[in-house]
Amino acid sequence: MDQVRLTVNGRDYTVDVDPATPLLYVLGEELQLRGPKFGCGLGQCGACTVIARGAAIRSCVTPVSAVEGAEIVTLEGLGTPDKPHPIQQAFIDEQAAQCGFCLSGVILSAKALLDRQPNATDTELRQALGGVLCRCFTHARMFRAIRRYQQGLKA
Amino acid sequence: MNRRDFLARSGGLVVSLASAEALAPFGKPQEFSGRARAGDPDASRVDTWIGIAADGRVTARTGKCELGQGIFTAQLQLIAEELAVPIDRITLVQCDTALTPDQGTTSGSQSSPTNFNDRNLALACATARGALVRLAAERMGVPAERLTAAEGAVQESGAGGKRFTYGELLRGQRFELALDPAAKRQPPATWKVLGSSVPRADLPALVTGTLEFVHNVHVDGMVHGRVVRPPSMGATLERVDEGSVSSMPGFVAVVRKANFLGVVCEKPWQAVQAARALKATWKAGPELPAQDGFYEFMRRQPARDTRVVDSGDVDAALAKAARVIRATYLHPYQAHGSMGASCAVADVRGSRATIWSATQSAYPTRDTAAMILGVKPDDVHVIFTRGPGCYGLNGADTVSYDAAVMSQAVRRPVKVQLSREDELGWENFGYAYVIDLAAGLDAAGTITAWNCESWNTVRGGRPGYQTPGNVITGSLLGFEAAPFTPRAQAPAPASFNNGSNAVPSYMRGAIGGTNRGTGIVASERVLTHAIASPFFTGPLRSPSRLQNTFAHESFVDELAAAAGEDPVQFRLRHLADRRLIDVIAAAAKAGQWETRPSPKRGQAQGVQTGRGMAAVLYEGDNGYCALVAEVSVDPRDGSIRVTRLVGAQDCGAISSPDGMRNQIEGGALQGLSRALGEAVTWDGAKVTSVDWRTYHSLSMGAEMPVVESVLINRPDREAMGAGETTITLTAAAVANAVFDATGARLREVPFTPERVLAALARRSPPPSRP
């Protein structure tokens, strides 16, 4: 066990944990956050996605020690049910979810790209979401929501 | 248990009539937080479904749960409409064995038919509203005819009319009424909330990552378990070396019971590592039948035969036909592949247990978990907690048993998270199918006889109330799966049941002199052979209906081509059911269907385009749907691009148009993923498609077609299911479109580029190309 210092959604934490522990378990169990979810544990589906140092990463295969000191943002770090972030609002406006288990992967992967490249093309968006699954196949609505958010960025 | 069995247990029985009962006294003030009730909630009583507190807040309880399909919000709409209360005043409790009525399993597209027609939740609300109006009439001393219920209050008509809120009328007391079959539903013409696109109530929490999934449940003192599944199908556990992990950090226990093996540690990552490190000796199970040649293997197995329909004259009619067309269709095992590997939390203390589970079957899981724990069902409390979309029997039930067994062993609350491999390797897969079809055409190209003979694979299934051995954990613990009994001689069918869509739409479905099918073909036979599966199987979104419909709707297209006729026109003239005809016409119209025979002639070299259609009355009585697919096929690499899908659907009275569109879209595209890439693979010992590299789902990066939907609303008809319609049709619609584009017929799912190239190579005769 080691003391690992983390900054998550703007708050500082010190956790007592094996530094090899994947970040997901720290976020889900130690910090009891609900946004990042266990999908595959292999970095293949995106359900555990968080943003760290501006990039969308798979927290299930990222050792917690690798993100010590980094600014980590989870899905609940963007906005709240009462004050959702514009990209979250876009998903509500488009009713773009079914079970919602994939939303960390979809929303945070899209947001990380659009933060860097507000004018990303459809092809670039699809590339950014290439490692993300939505098994309910809410694809069309989700892309509509992402484009709605992107339009808002340009306005 | 099939859906008809659980309907019988779903709370539809009404034991007495409310209208004969006095409204007062109302008994004790209602307590909504209390969980200590003797016996199960009684589904025949209004108070089981609906409670109204003194402040007017409504607590409703349902046995149908949210799986991502939107039923939570749709039920809120139903309650708001029937009870005439603002939707934001309702708290809806779903699937908690201490609180909600036992409605069996949330499955089979049955939530709408069960709760939105004249019984169960809808009837409870209508009964409650009627009682409130009568109570107000007594209180005001005016006839009930002058009163209207709206916005959580009963209002007397006319200026200065009196008004009492529900809270004032009930004063926190119970209804003490039975559901009244004579209670009047709100007429659809007056609906304001039901029938409109109310935004999903759970979305703000979902998109902000604040909604509690079962993966997020925390219980004080909770530890973490991981299972260690056998190295091969049917392997038995001989020896476990606990010492291989007992000194690892956070180690709590190795849990071994019969062939069940798991490890419990203080933290989840410790449990992952311990499960990997645990040394165990297993005796290998029997070698699996080779995947190569498996479909032929299926034909040779002892089978349980069922004749679904048999007019007795099919062989004679085929012998007389001007032409006989034959084809065989193949469908692989497929996985549910939920986004999240399954998870559950159990807290077993002595003889009592609490299980937080994403099961579709709270009550059945309670009963079977009790069997596993050796305790009374009354002492097990199952609390449904949201899980990832399951699309049928995923790992939610089995992991609930895993957590229960491990918690009982360590006497602490245990969360069990399955690995991706645990999930994909040991699921109850969707059935593999071989379907042989033969049909006779007369000289005019009309179908004179249709013969269907199929083989499908069965092992286990939903545990129901008493068969925990139907899923892997129960089996490892020593419980038997439902027995498989071959039956070579199928009895003559006694009644028409097309719940599996084994009977094609174009058959009459004549049993006992009455046509119950949707078509006109009088010489008809459907014979099914169930064989014992080497893998567990179970319902996967559109179980059997999808496989059968892929075959039937592809084959009718082959018949249309043989007759040289447009596939839509050919379908229409072999159908008798008006509503099925209407959805086909609506999809064709919306899809700008070009009326002509397939394949399309005169296409240039290179990428070829085409359109295809498929249609079905889901389960023979549960949702009409037609789907048009447009594709382009690249004959150089065998790739299929689906560019457009147009679905038309009639599910009776629509509860939420946008909710229905969401299901149409998701179903169509999930169907596309299954048609183009998904198949379970195995070697001699075990399943090898155990992650997202080896089990091929279309990702968010895939170029997806536009899905357009045409909703045919029939407010005066019973509500039907809407969640499994388009998925039933995608494979056939795409295969038919590929045929239209290229003249190549795809008869085996999934339509991989290799299979497309092979089909292109075997085209006969090759179509003329410029």
Keywords:
heterodimer; A: alpha+beta; 5-stranded mixed sheet; B: alpha+beta; 27% helix; globular; disordered N terminus; disordered C terminus
List the helices and strands and how they pair.
The complex is a heterodimer of chains A (155) and B (770).
Chain A: E1 2-8, E2 11-17, H1 23-30, E3 49-52, E4 55-58, E5 71-73, H2 75-78, H3 86-93, H4 103-116, H5 122-128, H6 139-154
Parallel strand pairs in A: 1-5
Antiparallel strand pairs in A: 1-2, 3-4, 3-5
Chain B: H1 3-8, H2 46-49, E1 50-52, E2 58-62, H3 71-83, E3 90-94, H4 111-115, H5 120-140, E4 147-150, E5 153-156, E6 163-165, H6 166-170, H7 203-207, E7 223-227, E8 236-241, E9 251-257, E10 260-265, H8 268-277, E11 279-283, H9 294-300, E12 303-310, H10 314-320, E13 323-331, E14 343-349, E15 352-357, H11 362-373, E16 380-384, H12 396-410, E17 414-417, H13 420-426, E18 433-441, E19 447-458, H14 472-476, E20 510-511, E21 514-515, E22 523-532, H15 545-562, H16 567-572, H17 578-590, E23 608-617, E24 624-634, E25 639-650, H18 657-676, E26 706-711, H19 725-742, H20 753-761
Parallel strand pairs in B: 2-3, 7-17, 15-16, 19-22, 25-26
Antiparallel strand pairs in B: 1-2, 4-5, 5-6, 7-10, 8-11, 9-10, 12-22, 13-18, 14-15, 14-17, 18-19, 20-21, 23-24, 24-25
Notes on the protein architecture:
The complex is a heterodimer of chains A (155) and B (770). Helices cover 37% and strands 16% of the residues of chain A. With 155 residues, chain A is an alpha+beta fold. The longest helix of chain A is centred in the C-terminal third of the chain and has 16 residues, at 139-154. The model of chain A has no long low-confidence stretch (mean pLDDT 97). The termini of chain B are far apart. Chains A and B meet through helix 1, helix 2, helix 3, helix 4 and helix 5 of A and helix 7, helix 8 and helix 18 of B.
In summary, what is this structure?
The complex is a heterodimer of chains A (155) and B (770). Chain A is an alpha+beta fold and 155 residues long.
